[in-house]
Amino acid sequence: MALSIGVPRETEAGEARVALVPDVADRLLATVDGLEVRVEEGAGNGAYHTDADYEAAGCSVVDREQAFAADVLVKVAGPSNDEIELLGDGQVLIGLMDPLGAPERAQALAERGVTTLAMELVPRISRAQKLDALSAMSSIGGYRAAILAAERLPKFFPLLTTAAGTVRPARVLVLGAGVAGLQAIATAKRLGAKVFGYDIREPTREEVESLGASFVELEVDIEGDQDESGYAEELEKEKQERQPELLKPHIAEADVVISTALIPGRPAPLLINENAVEAMDPGSVIVDLAAPNGGNCAYTETGEEIVEHNVQILGPTNLPAEMPVHASELYAKTVVAMIEEGLADGTFAPDFEDQIFADSCLTRDGEVRNERVRGLLEPEEKDA
Ligand code: NAI
């Protein structure tokens, strides 16, 4: 039987992205015989793609129920409880499932018999780079964070020489130099700021410096390990406690701090304490990209913009959704790369022995397949 792919309209508040854009759908339709792409009415509106654009690309525009009845569902955000109710045995769901943040969602999907592939769990191996949705979205987050900071800062970013005098460039400190941090550094640099980068993983020094920023050296060496995927491992408790005080003088000198430090599956490390915020100049800006994981700044309120000690502290939760055209396009490419990887004779039949599918498989055959997610669910199971 011919394969059908469903593209529902995203319903999470503020989510303007769509999981498949017309251009990317068009290319997939051209390569898979008999494929049907069912797009829910209005699904592309937030990303400026009309129903007519999808139809012109060869997709069918359908109602919500029909979209949810497809063999393979592609989504951006993980499904709500109502959406999970629409899914059933044998269906495949691909999306950003927040597996470690929302383990109960995985449990519910497993109970419905859904095969779930979580884009966050795609292994970071070179063969899977084209499926790396996290990097694509982090990069957008980093770019937007720098733009947001520049817009909020009551100062220029670049050095400016005018008849009225010379303005010194803003000092931007980026904490965490992973994908988002490096993009924030590159963007702040292009806007003319004096940029500093900091991370606990030693290999980041070279990356920070290659972007023309200075690497921040702490007075006492605090270096962390990274696992085989390149993710940071949590620092020992004693180092964790010293880090904010050691960073304080560097934060105090910054006009802008963009913080991006994360440890997968752990609360975000505290890097900016109350004293450090107090030591910043009035009007300074902190953009805390770690806000969804509790934040790197002691004052961060997730999803809010607040002012403490005359410093603006922003805790955005979904900056990629604020740039929905490119975010949807790049996300769609990673999702389609995953579909193509699992195609066999015109159907979606992934090989779960293959590392890409073994790792990204969140639920299958009525079970939660990811060990860490199962570990998070177990205490609840014991209580039950
Ligand atoms: P992330 O979003 O999990 O973390 C962001 C950054 O925070 C990391 O660089 C981490 O070292 C840093 N960090 C954690 N705790 C910190 C602390 N206490 N103080 C300061 N910094 C701290 O990581 P992201 O950006 O998703 O990726 C991290 C790395 O993974 C990349 O830089 C790269 O080396 C690797 N990677 C590999 C890919 C591949 O092979 N396909 C693709 C993408 C990333």
Give your account of this protein's structure.
The chain is α/β, with parallel strands linked by helices and 384 residues long. The chain folds into two domains: 4-132 and 324-383, Rossmann fold; 137-317, NAD(P)-binding Rossmann-like Domain (Rossmann fold), CATH 3.40.50. It has helices at residues 22-31, 51-56, 64-68, 81-85, 103-111, 133-152, 179-190, 204-210, 237-252, 274-279, 324-342, 355-360, 371-383, and strands at 4-7, 36-40, 60-62, 72-77, 92-96, 115-118, 160-162, 165-167, 171-175, 194-198, 214-215, 256-259, 285-288, 305-308, 311-314, 343-344, 347-348, 361-364, 367-368. The longest helix has 20 residues, at 133-152. It is globular and about 70 Å long. The two termini are 41 Å apart. 1,4-dihydronicotinamide adenine dinucleotide binds at residues 124, 129, 132, 134-135, 138, 175-181, 199-201, 204, 230-232, 235, 243, 260-264, 269, 271.
Brief digest:
The chain has 384 residues and is an alpha/beta fold. It has helices at residues 22-31, 51-56, 64-68, 81-85, 103-111, 133-152, 179-190, 204-210, 237-252, 274-279, 324-342, 355-360, 371-383; strands at 4-7, 36-40, 60-62, 72-77, 92-96, 115-118, 160-162, 165-167, 171-175, 194-198, 214-215, 256-259, 285-288, 305-308, 311-314, 343-344, 347-348, 361-364, 367-368.
Poorly predicted regions: none
CATH architecture of the largest domain: 3-Layer(aba) Sandwich
Q: Strand count, sense and closure of the main sheet?
A: 8 strands, mixed
Which homologous superfamily in CATH is the superfamily of the largest domain? NAD(P)-binding Rossmann-like Domain
Radius of gyration: 22 Å
Estimated structural class: alpha/beta
User: What name does CATH use for the topology of the largest domain?
Assistant: Rossmann fold
User: What is the mean pLDDT?
Assistant: 95
Ligand list: 1,4-dihydronicotinamide adenine dinucleotide
